[in-house]
Amino acid sequence: xxxxxxxxxxxxxxxxxxxxxxxxxxxxxxxxxxxxxxxxxxxxxxxxxxxxxxxxxxxxxxxxxxxxxxxxxxxxxxxxxxxxxxxxxxxxxxxxxxxxxxxxxxxxxxxxxxxxxxxxxxxxxxxxxxxxxxxxxxxxxxxxxxxxxxxxxxxxxxxxxxxxxxxxxxxxxxxxxxxxxxxxxxxxxxxxxxxxxxxxxxxxxxxxxxxxxxxxxxxxxxxxxxxxxxxxxxxxxxxxxxxxxxxxxxxxxxxxxxxxxxxxxxxxxxxxxxxxxxxxxxxxxxxxxxxxxxxxxxxxxxxxxxxxxxxxxxxxxxxxxxxxxxxxxxxxxxxxxxxxxxxxxxxxxxxxxxxxxxxxxxxxxxxxxxxxxxxxxxxxxxxxxxxxxxxxxxxxxxxxxxxxxxxxxxxxxxxxxxxxxxxxxxxxxxxxxxxxxxxxxxxxxxxxxxxxxx
Length: 454
Prior knowledge:
Blueprint: H1 2-8, H2 14-32, H3 39-70, H4 73-100, H5 103-126, H6 132-160, H7 166-195, H8 197-215, H9 231-244, H10 246-266, H11 269-276, H12 281-304, H13 311-330, H14 335-363, H15 369-381, H16 383-397, H17 399-420, H18 422-425, H19 429-435, H20 439-453
Helix pairs in contact: 3-6, 3-7, 3-8, 4-6, 4-15, 4-16, 5-6, 5-8, 6-15, 7-8, 7-12, 7-14, 9-20, 10-13, 10-15, 10-16, 10-17, 11-12, 12-14, 13-14, 13-17, 16-17
């Protein structure tokens, strides 16, 4: 009897030890990852991870291919111009579609086109028939799909979780892009070095297929009210809302800093690494991954940190610091230090992007969110206005000079908004959370649509 009891009864200390990891995981999930408790958000996160990894594989593979074909920083900028131009032209259409149609279906359509484009370029590279004009068409298609799908992608975030978890969902969604910025370039560098550029493009196809498989299971916006009226009236309502809403208007002006002066500089990294640092494609993969690693740290910091009381101030400060870091990068020639500076650049870029998206998600009513995100995308469509002059400067005077100029101009925009955009500067987290619950917020959107329809 005693022997049986001794065998049947486990030691008293084993059960707490065995259950400690699950308890720790549950506590971590509830504290830092509550948005993942909602299946639609998990599907969206996985879909974005696949698509963004493919995008950053393309960033490195295409950049290195262009340098091998032409050895021209200006051509790098020109292809980025072809990618950015559709954002300027088609972003309003993307916002209109996001507020009228099924957002998951828009995403599936865009990823299907991206996958077919990557497959075509991979075949052209493998057969030796690739030319720069092929890449120009590919870049244009990629930019068009980006413009048509991004308003829907970002608008889906707040549809996938309760309002109290929007900030957490935005920060976690930011990790998809930033993990992709680490994994994508490093993976592309390894694949290009071991199997060639065509293999990198074929890898991209797998990322887009993974994205489609996850998006098709999202049912987050089935009961969302759809925008009504003529297309022109709906688009006009979105622009009127942005112009009449102080914090959002200031935020859009602030976005001009990275769109015109900071982000274009990352397009010149292949030339900077090869010509100024005298390094190879694996080194380009490492420094580009450092940019992504810093962005991951920024996103994780936002996940773990308590809510910022003045989110607008943090968004502005991140832009100012980001501009200063590019000036530092322009005088740097040590590969490890370049990686360190780029990690800091990525961190502050991500902090700005996450804060901006959180502000939009919480301040803008659901029926207007797609169009406001489209206006945000139009800012990114203005990137060629900064990209081509910076690329021409890099071609004529060197990439470091272009980095110094772009960083300085970005810093100046941040300082200007800090003084001019007082409503963004004084915006509080409590005010954001109360915005959609107050009758005035919804009324503003309805009034804008009514005005547009007149």
